[in-house]
Amino acid sequence: MSWLNKLLPPKIKRESRSDKTSSVPEGLWSKCPACEAVLYYTDLESNLQVCPKCNHHNALDARARLNILLDEEGRREIGAEVKPIDILKFKDSKKYPDRLAASRAATGEDDALVVMQGSMLTVPVVVAAFEFRFIGGSMGSVVGERFVRGVQAAVEARTPFVCVAASGGARMQEGLNSLMQMAKTSAALDLLTQAKLPFISILTDPTMGGVSASFAFLGDVVIAEPNALIGFAGPRVIEQTVRETLPEGFQRAEFLLEKGAVDMIVDRRELKQRVADLATLLLREPALV
Amino acid sequence: MKTTFLDFEQPIAELENKIEELRFVQDDSVLDISDEIERLQKKSLELTKSLYAKLTPAQVSQVARHPQRPYTLDYLNSIFTDFQELHGDRAFADDHAIVGGMARFNGQAVMVIGQQKGRGTKDNIHRNFGMPRPEGYRKALRLMKLAEKFGMPVITFIDTPGAYPGIGAEERGQSEAIGRNLYEMAKLRVPVICTVIGEGGSGGALAIAVGDSVNMLQYATYSVISPEGCASILWKTAERAPDAAEALGITAHRLKSLGLIDRVVSEPVGGAHRDHAAMMAALKRVLQEELKALTARSLDELLKTRFDRLMSYGRYKEDAA
User: Fold this and answer.
1) Are the C-beta atoms of B22 and B36 separated by less than 8 Å?
2) Residue ranges making up the domain that contains B46
3) Which residues in chain B are closer than 8 Å to A216, comparing Cβ atoms?
4) Distance from CA of A113 to the nearest CA of B (A)
């Protein structure tokens, strides 16, 4: 042991030791967080991140989501040129630009929404997908602007607009600018209404706060993924406010269906077909063959 | 009513106490100390002015929540006449945290809607501390649609810590109610004037704050999340709320400079709670002016301007992709 190692506080030493002893290659096996089944990662991946044992829907990043929803040919990304800036010079324990950089490094995305024009089983669409790993999928100026550009592209091409939400809410680091994105995205949906084009809103785990309380529930059809946590206030905040334990399954997709908040719960493996079918129905086009 | 002093106002409180004592002494004194009282009163005013000239965002947020600050019904009863309160969302309940109804403003029929806080514990429980539930937002929307039908301008007053985070509120679709209002207000076919009179707490505030002009009283706050909530998430302790208040940029002047609100309405020296009448008069002048300007414009132009402004919110850079 070198002199430097001797000086290191015990915590750091422990961490560096555990690094050395891990001999299993990372990402080969995955444990289902719901049923604890140990799964071969490629199996999980080919099953769209749905546990083959218990149907638990794991988180999906934005590009993977777009990959499973869109046909391979004719994709075009929208709004990638829109990038975040630090409007408020926001700093908490970390500076906002540092948070952005860390999220960029971790996800390969510039912000928390990826918008893509393409087709779904040949039905032309624009799909927006949230990247939850990017600052909790939070909605700031870039998310709002990309969303609006997606809506505009759908109107221009006369196609439905589909949004897959996965977000903790409005992004605190852009202050009131983020709150205003709620109004901006909701108002933009009127462009679709005017053009009589469908907006299909898909709520995945989790869809909370400012995203939940803006465009998310304004879909002509609102779909939820199984067991997704969906709500305005976080469960912990509610628990602290009302000082009682929350009912079983509170704010889960099944609970929302029961309360009349969503139209349907759709298994991820059937999502593409269902959305395409809904789109053709709303457009009063012939059924898909 | 005796003024409630905030912690940073202690120097003013001490002076005011002294003045009070002197007044008491004067009643049974042969000496004339009225000059001394007047001198101290002047000093107290100067002190208030200088303290209020450099309030931190955290202090502003205390003023915005001052228990004696004028609330929606205070404005309603003094700026407007013939108020006819309308109740209920026609589906579930009447939410006492949002009040609304028709009234006259300088004789003109208008629809007034606002969040209402309570004075004192009992009243506050009745008003749910100004935290609306879905039925409150749905009542607000019902009244807005009524206003639209009869061509009445809508005037809203925003004063809420936020939408209520409760079990029932979630069960009845708090998110949908707020989102629906944002969507509908953006295209409401009558002028909409919004004024943040106290606390503009997040989505719960925004749900009645989409309009043609958005005003803020000088010591009101408007924020994406409460400083306490933000601090407990980002700093892991609510005690860092003053830092969060600073970072979030929640004050009227800051938000005006960021282009997120249209107008800052000056408050009387030491805040609206020190002089309700002066505050009412000042806000009445502003509403008068705005109503006149907005009704002069064609509806199409009004709606286009409102929509374009909504689309312009947010700052980002644009690189070659």
Assistant:
1) yes
2) 7-53
3) 175, 179
4) 14
